[in-house]
UniProtKB/TrEMBL annotation:
Residues 65-176 form the 3-dehydroquinate synthase N-terminal domain. This is 3-dehydroquinate synthase. It comes from Nocardioides faecalis. Pathway: Metabolic intermediate biosynthesis; chorismate biosynthesis; chorismate from D-erythrose 4-phosphate and phosphoenolpyruvate: step 2/7. GO terms for biological process: amino acid biosynthetic process; aromatic amino acid family biosynthetic process; chorismate biosynthetic process. Pfam families: DHQ_synthase, DHQS_C. The gene is aroB. Its cofactor is NAD(+); Co(2+); Zn(2+).
């Protein structure tokens, strides 16, 4: 048990993100006053985590919506099964959804909460590092479409987020490392102290009970909280800042890679590759300093994240990735838009880059394959 840190997400409907170890007792306080019934969206593989959570829901009527694990849950059929179950139980607007799981579960459960009765309250209890530092915060919810990742969804903010670092004790190491992909992303776009902490720390020491990991979690959530408070719906930031799109750093290629692999690559791993790609793109198109480009490779590789990908394992070439990137949500008409850095912690939008530049940047991460 540790004293929790509370990070306020100061949007028009503000809410708290509570971070600490052994802090599940804070759950009740995050639920809306007067709630009598909750639906807990949780993958079967994480059902062992339900009992510790249920201890803090005494007196409430609780139902469990069991969903498939990971990306398998982010589709229309699973959402429809959840809606059906809520309908059978007569779930009303005074009831609340709780999600318990990784980012795929918070995305799906958040989407169900956003759409049932046009929106019921949701509290996220993320269980992966990636979901704590990113997916559970900020209100993006969604499912995948055959055309690509997260193409169906809505903005629906949680009423609270509970990040109990003790839940990470069972998280496989590769999943924790994947979460560091989004943490490092926050370092490049907004908070360079994150990069220093990763560079100064033995990666093996980044365990769920480490104070450095906790600081990385809190700093990443603070980055996300600031960005979404300024531009919740990704309509644009204040002068000189791209707004919420900054959080999409590395994601344009990442989502195309995820689709190409049929979601067998972890999201955080794909983001790591995508960050190196946009760093190389920025070097070609905006003269981004080479040292900063190499810093991307070094810090990501240091924690064990991939920095190269050539698509050969899944038969994906650059043209097929380009076709997927055409439906990225940042695209406007037939113009692709990428988040790049003008400098460290200075994200900016690169609209309509030349195909030659995209191909050349891709060649640097794919060992020349195009
Ligand atoms: N909405 C957003 O703002 C946002 C932000 C970032 C990522 N995402 C989405 O989040 C998803 C990635 O999240 P993720 O990396 O958490 O993936 P995930 O939800 O698939 O979880 C990864 C794996 O870890 C397991 N797991 C999670 N917690 C565990 C625990 N405590 N113990 C043991 N195993 C555990 C899961 O069962 C799963 O097998 C992607 O779909 C991505 O698009 C959304
Ligand atoms: O919250 C955001 O905004 C982000 O872009 C965070 C990303 O890490 C996350 O993967 C998000 O789901 C991507 O958003 P999308 O709009 O490209 O689907
Ligand atoms: Zn992401």
């Amino acid at each position: 048990m540790s004293e929790p840190t509370v990070i306020r997400v100061a949007t028009a409907s503000p809410y708290d993100v509570v971070v600490g170890r052994g802090v599940l007792d804070r759950l009740r306080g995050l639920l809306p006053a007067g709630v009598q019934r909750v639906a807990i969206v949780c993958p079967e593989s994480l059902e062992d985590l339900l009992d510790p959570l249920a201890e803090h829901l005494e007196g409430l009527d609780a139902m469990v919506l069991q969903v498939p694990d990971g990306e398998e849950a982010k589709n229309w059929e699973v959402a429809a099964a959840c809606w059906e179950a809520l309908g059978e139980e007569g779930f009303t607007r005074s009831d609340a959804v709780i999600t318990l799981g990784g980012g795929a579960t918070t995305d799906l459960g958040g989407f169900v909460a956003a759409t049932w009765l046009r929106g019921v309250a949701v509290v996220h209890v993320p269980t992966s590092l990636l979901a704590m530092v990113d997916a559970a915060v900020g209100g993006k919810t969604g499912i995948n479409s055959p055309a690509g990742k997260n193409l169906i969804g809505s903005f629906h903010e949680p009423v609270g987020v509970l990040c109990d670092l003790a839940l990470l004790d069972t998280l496989p190491r590769a999943e924790l490392v994947a979460g560091l992909g989004e943490v490092i992303k926050c370092g490049f776009i907004a908070d360079p102290r994150i990069l220093e902490l990763v560079e100064e720390t033995d990666p093996a020491a980044l365990t769920p009970d480490s104070p450095v990991l906790r600081e990385l979690v809190e700093r990443s959530i603070a980055v996300k909280a600031d960005v979404v408070a300024a531009d919740l719906k990704e309509t644009g930031g204040a002068a000189g800042h791209p707004g919420r799109e900054a959080l999409n750093y590395g994601h344009t290629l990442a989502h195309a890679i995820e689709k190409a692999t049929d979601y067998s690559i972890r999201h955080g791993e794909a983001v790591a590759i995508g960050c190196v790609f946009v760093a190389e793109l920025a070097a070609r198109t905006g003269g981004l300093d080479r040292d900063l480009v190499e810093r991307h490779r070094a810090v990501l590789a240091r924690v064990g994240l991939p920095t190269t990908w050539d698509g050969s394992g899944v038969g994906a070439d650059f043209d097929s990735l380009l076709a997927t990137m055409a439906v990225d949500k940042k695209a406007r008409g037939n113009q692709l838009r990428f988040l790049v850095l003008a400098d460290l912690a200075r994200p900016t939008v690169l609209a309509g880059p030349a195909e030659d530049d995209l191909r050349a940047a891709y060649a640097t991460i794919s060992g020349g394959a195009a």
